[in-house]
Each structure stands twice: as C-alpha cells, then as structure tokens.
Write a structure and sequence with these properties.
- This protein has helices at residues 43-50, 73-77, 94-104, 109-122, 138-151, 168-185, 196-202; strands at residues 3-14, 17-28, 32-36, 58-63, 66-67, 80-83, 156-160, 188-193, 205-210, 213-219.
- With 220 residues, the protein is α/β, with parallel strands linked by helices.
- It has a domain at 89-153.
- A six-stranded mixed β-sheet has the order 6-7-8-3-9-10, sandwiched between helices. It has a four-stranded antiparallel β-sheet with strand order 2-1-4-5, covered by helices on one side.
- A hairpin with a 2-residue loop joins strand 4 (58-63) and strand 5.
- The radius of gyration is 17 Å and the shape is globular.
C-alpha cells in the first residue's frame, strides 16, 4: 500500500482530558477520506493534528515514509493545505487572497499570476478577482479559501466541514465542482463532515469517530 500518512497510538489531550485516541490509521496517497461523526467526536482535532496546529500527547506519525517530527515545521506546513469553516480571508482583493501563499514562497511573479488565475477559473470565481473579500457571500468566500489552498499544490489537503453554513444551491454546486477538481488533481484529501451526502458525493473512504475513537472504517 502506498500511504501518505500513517498514524500509530495517537493520543490528544485538550483542557486536560483525552479527546482523540486512534490506535492505527493509514491514509493512502491520492485518497479522498471523509472523517464523519457527531459534534465533539474529534473530527476537527484530527485535522488540527495533521496540520500540526495541535501537539499530540503521544503517538507516532509518518508522512510520506518520513518520521513526522523529523520534518521542520515550516517545511511540513508547506506540504499542507488547510481550509477551516471560517474562511479566514485577508482584507484584500480575491486575487490577492489566492496569491498570498504563493508570494510567501517567493515564486516568480509570472508563476503567481498564472497559478492564481488558474484556480480562480477552476473554482468559478474569476469574475470576483478584484472584489474585496469583505464583500463576498459565504459561498464565494469558501471558494476563495479553496482556491488559495489548491494553488499551493499541497501533498495533503485538509478541509474542515467544507460545506457548512452554505445554502442548498451553493452546497450542491460546490460539491459537484470539488468532486471534479479532486478527481483531476490527485491530491490526498481529508475532510470532516457530519453529512452522509458529503460522504457519498466526494469520498473514496470514510472513517467515523465516536467519543474521540475510531468507530468505523468503510470504503464508499
């Protein structure tokens, strides 16, 4: 099996109590993995650990056959794309929001422009490139955040409830667009959800967390 992530004996504490405990979990390269479960089950905690925003109490994690803790933080975070429920956009134009991460990597201006325009187009928001982020709807802001993450060409894409707080029409259209994009880019993707529809439309595989522990592991 060609795994990007391998987790063993993971334990995470928050506020002094265990909130996530996973004995073993592998995530294959190119897989779209749904992490399902009720509120408080540990879904977001798992994503935060994978993004290195939470430090586990114990556990061994391998990333692309390397010991996770042997990879410097900056190097590791450049391998990760993270989109939270709150899109966390800068008070700048849509174009600048998508381009920001690329500029931080000191890529040539031509590359930044080309890649930013590509992902504005693929997420269907080219017409918004000059609009201030403060003037976007919730669905538009989510697409900008996704474009920003995809433009970085991450090895691992982490999406926390990517369709939350969207109206039905926006949710359905984004599900279709995201499925098409994920089928074409072969980026290993982990997304949290409590929606069976999200799982059916996007995921190759689903794990279910219950009380911070792995309850089910199913192919979809």
């Amino acid at each position: 099996m060609n795994n990007l992530v391998e987790i063993h004996s993971l334990l995470v504490h928050r506020a002094g109590r265990p909130v996530l405990e996973i004995d073993h979990l592998d995530i294959e390269k190119g897989q779209v993995l749904a992490v399902a479960g009720p509120n408080g089950s540990g879904k977001t905690t798992l994503l935060m650990v994978l993004a290195r925003l939470l430090k586990p109490e114990r556990g061994e994690i391998q990333f692309n056959s390397q010991q996770w803790n042997s990879i410097p933080n900056l190097d590791y975070r450049r391998l990760i794309g993270l989109v939270m429920q709150d899109s966390l956009l800068l008070n700048r134009s849509v174009f600048d929001n998508v381009a920001t991460g690329l500029r931080f990597r000191y890529l040539p201006k031509s590359v930044v422009t080309c890649r930013t325009n590509e992902w504005l187009e693929r997420l269907g928001i080219s017409h918004l490139r000059g609009r201030p982020a403060s003037q976007l709807s919730g669905g538009e802001a989510r697409r900008v955040a996704l474009a920003r993450a995809f433009a970085l060409q991450p090895d691992l894409l982490l999406l926390d409830e990517p369709f939350s707080a969207l109206d039905r029409a926006s949710r359905n259209k984004l599900q279709v667009d995201l499925k098409t994009i994920l089928a074409g880019v072969n980026i290993t993707t982990v997304f949290s959800t409590h929606s069976e529809t999200d799982v059916q439309k996007l995921a190759d595989r689903m794990i279910e967390l219950n009380g911070g522990k792995l309850d089910h592991d199913l192919c979809t």
